[in-house]
Amino acid sequence: MTDPLPRNPLTQDPLTRDPLTPAARALCEALSAGFPRPEAGPEALRAAARAHRGEPAPGATDTVADGVPVRVYEGATAPVVVFAHGGGWVLGDLDTHDRLCRALAARSGATVVSVGYRRAPEHRFPAAEDDVYTALGWAAARWPGRPLVPAGDSAGGNLAAAAALRARDRGGPAIAGQLLVYPVLDHRLAGASARTYAEGFFHTTAHMRWYWEQYLGPDGDPVAASPGLAADLAGLPPALLVLADCDPLRDEGLDYARRLSAAGVVAHVQLHTGVFHGFLGGLGVLPEADRALAAAGAWLAALSEAA
User: How does strand 239-246 pair with strand 178-181?
Assistant: First the structure.
């Protein structure tokens, strides 16, 4: 059983106060109780992720975007959000993120295209990147003239950031912004947050290292798969980074925002205290999740007005 509190990375002494809110701690413990360690393997972890997905509600349309399965949530206003789900490139699917995508569409008014990209370890890097970029091009052709925004949470945030880089480097499609929710950006996991919040906050540093291993395999290029290590960030669209304070990945998100700003890219950061990686799954339970989604919707609306 792991210590529920993080340890000071310098002294390794347990911190004296739980940085999570009581509601976030209760949700974190409930999620952690049924989630296996990485050595249990992909199928055990996938089963645990599916256990919390619920039944998809009616109203969305499943279709195929140039060979890639997608689920479309039609919105009434201009932005088109191409959303890549999280799950370490190994877990997650259209159903596990149905509620989040449905809520994002409802609260922002945007059309959301959720991407059922190929997963590791059966399909390693860059298969997932290829699928998200393909869906992005499909969405641009289907809704011409509407602001286009790649988005995603966790590993999906990695894929959204990679899609924005590809669109810049390959001459399109035109991207209005990028919405990155506690994204995976740097394979090195070198930030202090990866040590401080390594255990006891649902998403562990050990899980993240294992996800990277599954995604890259023995021959994958970790630098190429890490948008946070891209040599040049100039010319990218505005970014909103939604981060959790008690997250092993917090520092790589903050570092990416700093690098974007240094490259002349408008980068907004929403750092939510008292919550953990994956906290948007607590919609209706965690006030921070509802505030984060409302703020993301407002940011998307502002992008549309500026377009």
Answer: parallel
Assess whether 154 carries a catalytic annotation. yes
Catalytic entry in 247, 251, 272, 304: 247
List, for residues 46-100, the tens digit of each pLDDT value.
Answer: 999 988 666 666 689 999 999 999 999 999 888 999 999 999 999 999 999 999 9
Active site residue 66: no
Express each pLDDT in 248-306 by its tens digit.
999 999 999 999 999 999 999 999 999 999 999 999 999 999 999 999 999 999 987 77
Closest by CA position to 303, among listed 246, 249, 239: 239
The reply to whether 18 belongs to the active site is: no
The one catalytic residue among 98, 186, 277, 304: 277
b/e per residue 129-156 (b: at least 16 CB within 10 A): bbbbbbbbbbbbeeeeebbbbbbbbbbb
Strands 61-65 and 239-246: unpaired
Residues in the chain: 307
Q: Are 127 and 221 in contact (CB under 8 A)?
A: no
Tell me which H or E stretch contains 84: strand 80-84
pTM of the full predicted structure?
Answer: 0.94
Task: Please check the confidence at residue 5 and state whether its pLDDT lies above 70.
Answer: no
Rounded CA gap, 304 and 103, in Å?
Answer: 18
Rounded Cα distance, 57 and 73, in Å: 11
Tally Cβ neighbours within 10 Å of residue 268.
16
Q: How far apart are CA 16 and CA 43, in angstroms?
A: 36
What is the C-alpha separation between 116 and 65, in angstroms, rounded?
10
CA 186 to CA 209: how far, in whole Å?
Answer: 11
Residue from 93, 97, 108, 154 carrying the catalytic annotation: 154
42-71 as b/e, with b when 16 or more CB fall inside 10 Å? beebbeebeeeeeebeeebeeeebeebbbb
